[in-house]
Design brief:
The complex is a heterodimer.
Chain A (H helix, E strand, L loop, with lengths): L2 E7 L5 H10 L12 E5 L2 E7 L11 H11 L5 E7 L4 H17 L2 E4 L8 E2 L1 H10 L3
Antiparallel strand pairs in A: 1-4, 1-5, 2-3, 3-4, 5-6
Chain B lengths: L7 H8 L4 H15 L4 E10 L2 E10 L3 E4 L7 H9 L10 E4 L5 H9 L3 E3 L2 H9 L2
Parallel strand pairs in B: 3-4, 4-5
Antiparallel strand pairs in B: 1-2, 2-3
Classes of the chains: A alpha+beta, B alpha/beta.
């Protein structure tokens, strides 16, 4: 299954606003009702969820709280999971485009949630990283 | 030990990919094949009318193994694997293999009814007891 990254926003985003955002991006609904929307473009797919249950208490460790606050400027009020199809640079690029669209409306950072090399990026840094990837 | 796995080429390619997440999938599959587990799919992608449904990292006779190098936030995907009839038509149990998964995430994932392994021995023990 996909690997997730998280958009952490200092703004409190309502379900209605997030649904409108997804609709504007042409997201499809998830037939299994697990995600709030699925965005596909050619061979790329990204699944999105607003405040998924296993991110509700994130960040939680002292290290996470310190670094997230440092990067975001405050504790996140909203967490969005972007689940990116594995082994697909097209999906990683699509996720970066979605993050950019999200950042046009809400201030945020991108957390890679990686257990080996955990990093938090600005949206621009994340976009640059993903668009450097090739087949 | 002599063994045959229909996904030998794909597993070997994953081990040589140089991509940490893909390497981890190859590493897990390699351990399974060396321990005589029957791998029935590896890196299987499912789509519906061109739209991605998801993928199955490793599937054995009796389980689906989701391999991750993430530290948390896999519950939605595990639920998808559990209920999606295209990804998991026979309703096999789902095992999260997450060597870097946080202890709080391990607890909540187990509480949600999923099996979690954080090292190869735990994974082999779970598979042996299914």
């Amino acid at each position: 299954m996909p690997e997730p990254v998280a958009l952490l926003s200092s703004e409190k985003i309502t379900k209605e606003d997030f649904t409108a955002f997804l609709k504007a991006l042409g997201a499809k609904s998830d037939p299994d009702k697990i995600y709030d929307g699925i965005i596909s473009k050619e061979e790329a797919t990204v699944w999105l969820a607003l405040n998924p249950e296993d991110l509700l208490n994130y960040p939680e460790t002292t290290e996470e709280i310190t670094i997230v606050r440092q990067k975001l400027g405050s504790m996140p009020q909203t967490r969005v999971s972007l689940d990116i199809a594995k082994r697909s640079w097209q999906s990683e690029r699509l996720a970066a485009e979605i993050a950019c669209k999200f950042a046009e409306r809400w201030s945020c950072v991108v957390d890679n949630l990686n257990g080996i090399d955990w990093r938090i990026f600005s949206v621009q840094e994340f976009y640059d990283l993903q668009t450097l990837k090739k087949v | 030990m002599n063994y045959y796995c229909p996904f030998d080429n794909e597993i070997d390619a994953a081990l040589q990919s140089g991509i940490s997440g893909t390497y981890l999938e190859g590493e897990v599959a390699d351990i399974l094949r060396k321990n005589g587990k029957n791998i029935v799919s590896f890196q299987r992608k499912e789509t519906n009318f061109g739209v991605g449904i998801g993928d199955v990292d490793i599937e054995t006779d009796n389980a689906i193994i989701e391999v991750t190098q993430q530290k948390q936030n896999k519950l939605g995907q595990l639920r998808k694997l559990q209920i999606d009839s295209q990804l998991n038509p026979s309703g096999k149990p789902i095992i999260l293999y997450g060597p870097y998964y946080k202890s709080s995430g391990v607890s909540s994932t187990r509480a949600a009814g999923f099996l979690v392994a954080q090292n190869f021995q735990e994974l082999l023990d779970i598979l042996a007891n299914l």
